[in-house]
Amino acid sequence: MKIETAYLEDHQAKLKVEFDTDLLNNAKQRAARKISQQTKIPGFRPGKAPYNIVIRTAGEAAILEEAMEILIDDQYPKIIEESKLKPYGPGQLENIVSFDPPIFEFKVPLEAEVTLLDYQAIRIPYELPFVEDNDVDRVLKDLQERQAVLSPVERPAQIGDQVFIRLSGNRLEPEEGESSVLVTDRPMPITITSGDEISPTEWPFPGFSLSLINLTAGDQKSLIHTFPEDADFTSLRGKSAEFSIIVENVKSRTLPEINNEFAQTIGEYETVDALRNDIRASLETERREDYDEGYNDKIMEELFKLATWKYPPQMLDHEIELFKDQLGNRIAQQNIDMETYLKIRQLDEAGLKEEITPLAEQRMKRTLVLLEIARQHDIKVNEKELETESMRTMDRLSHMLPPDKVRKTMTDQFVQNMIGNIGADLLIKHTWDYLHSIAKGEVDDPVKIDPSLEGPE
What we know:
- This protein is α+β, with helices and mostly antiparallel strands and 457 residues long.
- It is 47% helix and 18% strand.
- The chain has helices spanning 21-38, 51-58, 60-83, 133-146, 260-266, 272-306, 313-332, 338-345, 349-376, 383-400, 403-409, 412-439; strands spanning 2-7, 12-18, 92-99, 102-109, 113-116, 149-152, 162-171, 181-191, 220-226, 240-254, 307-310.
- The strands form 3 sheets. Strands 6, 7, 8, 9 and 10 form a 5-stranded antiparallel sheet that branches. Strands 1-2-4-3 form a 4-stranded antiparallel sheet, covered by helices on one side.
- The model is unreliable at 445-457 (pLDDT under 50).
């Protein structure tokens, strides 16, 4: 077997392979036997018809087509081994140069390659925001608000009341092709907050609740609001809208006292201090996760400046399909199918692909960089850690699903895929931990790896 290798610009290899004629002849004999087993040939038992009879019955083209499949199935692994290629995925027969001698051309996608410059020099300050007492107080206040006792009142609404209204809104000067309807008629409860407690995220705009003061059940009111240039809703910046309000009823709110008894109604807490400590711990975890996500982005931004990638188009195509499947799963949770989603977004399949391609490519490049760093420094997942995390996940699933659904879901293939995904996530996590230690300047010898991150001997 003779192999000529040519490397293509799209990180694929073109292989021109010349086989021994005997190999093709042998494959044709096997093909004829296979066809005679699958085709009823009068006068012969299955698989026993002579070669020339099979040719007359099935035709030489059918035998040759089957023989090529047999030959390629047999020889392709040897082709890859002899060519010393590292393929990303299966190759494809591109051309048949001749049958005498048999010369076939294959195109093989190659394993991705990442080249990184001196990323050990990356330094980024790590300044995790501290959880203040007033942060804990805000959560306690929210818990208190949720347990407020509502009582109907006949008086006009005042600060602290909850007012049940019907709200509608229209743009005053809609642009061409833009609907004038901003808010369809809908019921909603609004708690009136004082001027110094106005939230910048209040809907439909900050300070809206104050417009309900002194209104009583049955009152109607219209007001015009111009959204500032820094409004959260970018499509409304600088635009004016008219809102119509119908008051259905007004209720006073009585807040429970924040004491030990209150803490015990929230959960398994004996005291308010225990509740506060748990809130603080949760806020610290949440704040650290949010900060680390942004910190990771900063590190990756620096890594992108130092990295170059080579990957075949099939790898990006796979990532795009994965991205699209994940999008489909997310919108399905909102009871929206892909066809409806595309109509809402005024997109077709080609437009969706164009939109998600850069996102999928960036995600793929991030993963390739992290895996390359893990490879360079031999970062591994400890088997005990993988087992523990897998058992924790399975236990979580078993509590979330009914018993019959658990049995149907927990197939061997599902468990195997789940463990593989958990292992990949843990590897990425450990790699980020290592990159954090570099960026914080905590690693003197960048080649040293924390022993806890290494696999078993």
